[in-house]
Amino acid sequence: MAKSIVLYGGQFNPIHIAHMVVASEVNAFIKPDVFYFIPSFISPLKEHTDYLEGRYRVDMIQSVIDDLGFGRICLNEIERRGQSYTYDTVMYILDKHPDAKLYLVIGTDQYNQLHKWYKINELKSYITFVIVNRDKTTQEVESDMLSITIPRIDISSTLIRKRVKNNENIQALVSPSVEQYIREEGLYES
């Protein structure tokens, strides 16, 4: 039987409670054999302010994996450097696991930008998209995609970076281990 693999990519700058909720809900829904967190080096469709070196983001993701009790980190995009296209990452995973059933987690914001994605039609032939609804309304998705509704949590990495810079509390926004790491490493302070 083919392995089922979930791919959950993002900048994770930093990884926070909402990311953890998405991962937990998708993991419970899909019940994959492998759940990969995939930190991007540079995302082609996002602005890049407050960029943080990959090693710090990887350390924070690992602490969340330890807290959640599931997951692995795929370093392909960080090691590849440059812009990170999902298509290239999927080809890398399929090269390692040719018979795997792949699920790619995205939010409704990315779903509404799929027409801008690199090689989107080819990508759709290799994976099943898992659309995470975080709004009050549920996004209608294409019939070959899955849709999961999770509790709405208004947390963003931008908000966390801003609060750290202003020396404000982030305790309810990130896991205790991530908060401790941010404080110990002096991340986002300037």
Automatic annotation (TrEMBL):
* UniProt-recorded Gene Ontology molecular function terms: ATP binding; nicotinate-nucleotide adenylyltransferase activity
Q: Which GO terms describe its biological process?
A: NAD+ biosynthetic process
Q: EC number(s)? A: 2.7.7.18
Q: Which reaction does it catalyse?
A: nicotinate beta-D-ribonucleotide + ATP + H(+) = deamido-NAD(+) + diphosphate
First-tier enzyme category under EC: transferase
Pfam families assigned to the protein according to its UniProt record, in alphabetical order: CTP_transf_like
At the top level of its lineage, which domain of life is listed? Answer: Bacteria
Q: What positions does the domain Cytidyltransferase-like occupy? A: 7-163
* Pathway assigned to this chain's UniProt record: Cofactor biosynthesis; NAD(+) biosynthesis; deamido-NAD(+) from nicotinate D-ribonucleotide: step 1/1
**Which keywords does the record carry?**
ATP-binding, NAD, Nucleotide-binding, Nucleotidyltransferase, Pyridine nucleotide biosynthesis, Transferase
Q: What does this protein do?
A: Catalyzes the reversible adenylation of nicotinate mononucleotide (NaMN) to nicotinic acid adenine dinucleotide (NaAD).
Concerning PANTHER family, the annotation shows: NICOTINATE-NUCLEOTIDE ADENYLYLTRANSFERASE-RELATED (PTHR39321), PHOSPHOPANTETHEINE ADENYLYLTRANSFERASE (PTHR39321:SF3)
Q: Which family does it belong to?
A: Belongs to the NadD family.
Specify the protein name.
Probable nicotinate-nucleotide adenylyltransferase
* Annotated organism of origin: Staphylococcus saprophyticus
Q: What is the lineage of its organism?
A: Bacteria, Bacillati, Bacillota, Bacilli, Bacillales
Per the record, the gene is: nadD
